[in-house]
Amino acid sequence: MGRVPKMPPAEALSAVRNPLAFIAARWTPDPRTVRRAALAALVMSVVIVVTGGAVRLTGSGLGCPTWPKCTDDSLTTTSAMGVHGVIEFGNRMLTYVLCAAVGWAIIAARSEKPYRRSLTRLGWTQFWVVMGNAILGGIVVLVGLNPYTVAAHFLLSSALIAVAVVMWQRTREGDEEPRPLVGRAVRQLVWFLVVATVLLIAVGTVVTGSGPHAGDSSEIERMPLDWENVSKLHAVLAWIVVTLTFALWFVLRAVDAPKDPLDRTRDLFLILLAQGVLGYVQYFTNLPEVLVGLHMLGSALVWIAVLRVLLALRERPGTTAPAGVPAGPATEATVGTRA
Fold first, then answer.
1. Which terminus of the chain faces fewer neighbouring Cβ atoms within 10 Å, N or C?
2. Alpha carbon 105 to chain centroid distance?
3. Regions in the chain scoring below 70 on pLDDT
C-alpha cells in the first residue's frame, strides 16, 4: 500500500473550521450526483413517514417509553421490551439514515460548481426541520402520544417533504428569475389546489387523532371529535382536490400549456384516484392497518405530486458564467442566489 499523504497543519485546521468548504475545494460532483443526492433525501423523507406510520399502526408508539433513551436505564431496546421496542427503536435509528441522506445532499450542493447558495440553503433547511421533528418526536413519547403532538409531528414531516421536493426540482434548474409558463389565472387555480391539499392533509391528521389507531395498546388520549364526521369532512376535501385537479387539466389544455404541467397534472389525478379508492376501501373495512399504512404513503405521494404541478408552472434557465471566470464560489454573483 502507498503512503498516506500528510496534511499540512494549515489544511487540517481549515478542514476542522469549515469542513464543507474544505470538501468543496477538493471535489466537484457532476449535476447527476447532485440530483441523486437531493432525490435520496426526498425518498428518505417519505420513508420516515411510512415507518412512523408503521410504529403507530403496530401499537409500538411507546415501545421505547422514554426519550432520548429507549428506557430509563438503556439507550437501546432490550429483549424484555419485545417486538414493539424493536419497531420503535428501529424507527428512531432511521432518523440517522435520513440525516445521512440530507447531509449528502448538503455536501453535494455545497461542492457543485459554480456554487449555488440557494441550493445549499434548501439542504440546510431540511437538516433543521429534521432536527426539530426529532425533538418533537421525543416530546410525542414523553407526553404519552398526545394526538395533537402526533398531528404536529406528521405535519412537520410534510413540511420536510415540501422542502425536499423544491430542492430536487432546483437541482434540475438554473438560478435565473423564474419565468411563468402559464397565465396568472391558471397559477391562482393551482394555488387554490395547494391550499386545498394542505387542508386535506391537516384534516387527515385529525381523522387519525380521533380514530381507533391510538398508536399503543394502553389507554391513549384521543381528540374529542366524532370520528365519522371528521372522516366525511376529509372525504369532501378530497373530492374538492380531485375536482380542482380535473378542472386544472382542462384549463391547461384550453390555454395550450406546455407538456410538463399537463403531464404532472395527469399524474396527480391518477394518484388521487388511487388514494381515493384506498381511502373508501379502508373506511368500509374498519381501517385495517395495512391499508391505513398505504394511505399514509399515498398522502405523501399526493403532496409531492401537487408540489410538482406547482413547480412545473415556471422555468428557471441557468446562467452561464462569463468567459475566463472560473466556475466556483467566486462566480456566485453571476449565478444568483434566489431560491
1. N
2. 13
3. 1-17, 318-339
Reported pTM: 0.88
CA distance readout (Å), 267 to 9, 102, 160, 223, 337? 54, 26, 22, 34, 31
Cell of 84: 414493539
Look-up of cell digits 432520548: 68
The pLDDT assigned to 15 comes to 59
What DSSP state is assigned to residue 330?
A: G
Residues whose CB falls within 8 Å of the CB of residue 189, separated by 6 or more in sequence, listed in order = 244, 247, 248, 251
Q: Which residue has the cell 408508539?
A: 61
In angstroms, the CA 268 to CA 307 distance is: 10
Amino acid of residue 37: A
Looking at residue 217, its pLDDT comes to: 78
Closest to 68 in 3D by CA, of 121, 9, 12, 131: 131
Supply 213's cell numbers.
389507531
> Measured between alpha carbons, how far apart are the two ends of the chain, in Å?
46
Count of alpha carbons within 13 Å of 268, Cβ hemisphere only? Answer: 30
Can you give the pLDDT at residue 302? 97
Query: How big is the CA angle at 157 (ends 151 and 162), to the nearest 5 degrees?
Result: 130
